[in-house]
Amino acid sequence: MASIEKRTSRDGKTTYRVKVRLKGQPTETASFERKTDANKWAQDTESAIRDGRHFKTTAAKRHTLAELIERYIKDVLPTKPKSEAKQTAMLNWWKSEIGSYSLADVTPALIAERRDKLAAGKTKRDTQRNPATVVRYLAALSVCFTHAVKEWGWIDDTPMRKVTKPTESRGRVRFLSDDERTRLLKACKESSNAYLYPAVVLALSTGMRSGEIMGLTWDVVDLNRGRAILHETKNGERRAVAITGHALEVVKEMGKVRRIDSNLLFPSKEIAPQKPQKPIDLRAPWLAALKKAEIQDFKFHDLRHSAASYLAMNGASLAEIAEVLGHKTLQMVKRYAHLSEGHTARVVESMNQKIFGVAGGAE
Fold first, then answer.
1. Residues 254 and 267: beta-carbon distance below 8 Å
2. pTM of this prediction?
3. Are the beta carbons of 103 and 55 closer than 8 angstroms?
4. Model confidence over 166-205: pLDDT tens digits?
5. Exposure class string for 191-219: b at 16+ Cβ within 10 A, else e
6. Do the beta carbons of residue 318 and residue 336 sit within 8 Å?
7. CATH no. for residue 224?
8. What does the DSSP assignment read for 158-205?
9. For residue 43, what are the domain limits?
10. Looking at the domain assignment, is residue 21 inside a domain?
11. Dist. CA 233–CA 50, nearest whole Å
């Protein structure tokens, strides 16, 4: 609500002091010589606060969203090389849509309108864009606004607070059945590409991502201790990966015939001098193996889901699965919770027997 107080100074000059108070928002004040100006300011300010358009600083009116995005891409994204390319593409989409608006005019309603447009759009493969992708686009824009608030002082608060994120799906859980796994491994072993079988075995036994496997170098693999140290991971933290059993045997065999012109476990066929080494592209032999094994609806990344699913079915806790996969929180591994129900039931049964006595009730 707005209130206007008439004030008269000692020299007889009259001014009108306006206060705008809205629940959950700081009080805004201003003084005017004319009451009509005071009323107009009160109405405009109250409306702007309700719509999420009100900012104390004039910088919000001087700078456009395009300027904010350009500065973020230039000054901040270079410090995030892993996500630079993807985030640049997403931010440029926002720039093309609403970049001409001043920061003061970028409202939650405006962002929500473009959010819905994004959600209704199609991908390059002509498929419906999924909610997770929309969330990533919103997150990229949100980080920009956070810098504008905390680092550059262009705005006092971010409009993203009032923008609802779409609900993401629980995540795909496609894992190989015992029969499928047998057929796939057989097809991979018979492949003309000698690297396919070791790569698939590592994915199934360790849960490593495709990029992590392809980026393995011999200097990070310790065959004596049966582990590899991943220095470059998706969440930016180093991770030790246990390589045991058949996977360790396979890697040891690879070490006996390793290439001397590359430090990669899975180098490409041609190594160009003076250029960064690249891992081999296994897409073609992988698809051929899937076809030969007659396995439908399965991606290489699903080998990681398979590893996690096998861990859950063999009694691993969600915390243990998260540690193996390299997740910081349990949120991403909750999709496997239903697979460990048998283990959970055994834990509860064991606890009950200890506190109540033998099965069948307390004596």
1. no
2. 0.60
3. yes
4. 876 666 678 888 899 999 999 999 999 999 999 999 999 9
5. bebebbbbbbbbbbbbbbbbebbbbbbbe
6. yes
7. 1.10.443.10
8. -GGGGPPPPPPP--------HHHHHHHHHHHHTSS-TTHHHHHHHHHH
9. 2-51
10. yes
11. 43
Same domain, 189 and 152: no
Residue that the structure tokens 């290489």 belong to: 300
Dihedral Cα 192, 195, 200, 206, nearest 10 deg: 170
pLDDT for 114 equals 93
Residue 289 has pLDDT above 90, yes or no: yes
363, pLDDT greater than 50: no
Q: In what order do the strands lie in the sheet with 28-32?
A: 2-8, 14-20, 28-32
How long a stretch of residues is the chain?
363
Residue 34 and residue 85 in one domain: no
Tokens of 314: 């063999």
**Tokens representing residue 105 in the block:** 């005019």
Query: Which tens digits make up the pLDDT trace of 127-161?
Result: 778 888 899 999 999 999 999 988 888 888 899 99
